[in-house]
Amino acid sequence: MKYISPFLIALLFLIACQPDTTKTPTEKASLFSNTQNEIELAEKRLSPVRKAAGLVGNTVVKVDYSSPQVNDRIIWGGLVPYEEVWRTGANEATVISFEKAVLIEDQKLAAGKYSIYSIPGEKKWTIIFNYIWEQWGTEYNEAQDALRITVSPQNLNSFVEGLEIDVDEPGLLIRWEKLQIPVKLAPAPEET
Question: Which one of 4, 91, 141, 191 has the lowest number of neighbouring Cβ atoms within 10 Å?
Answer without folding.
Answer: 191
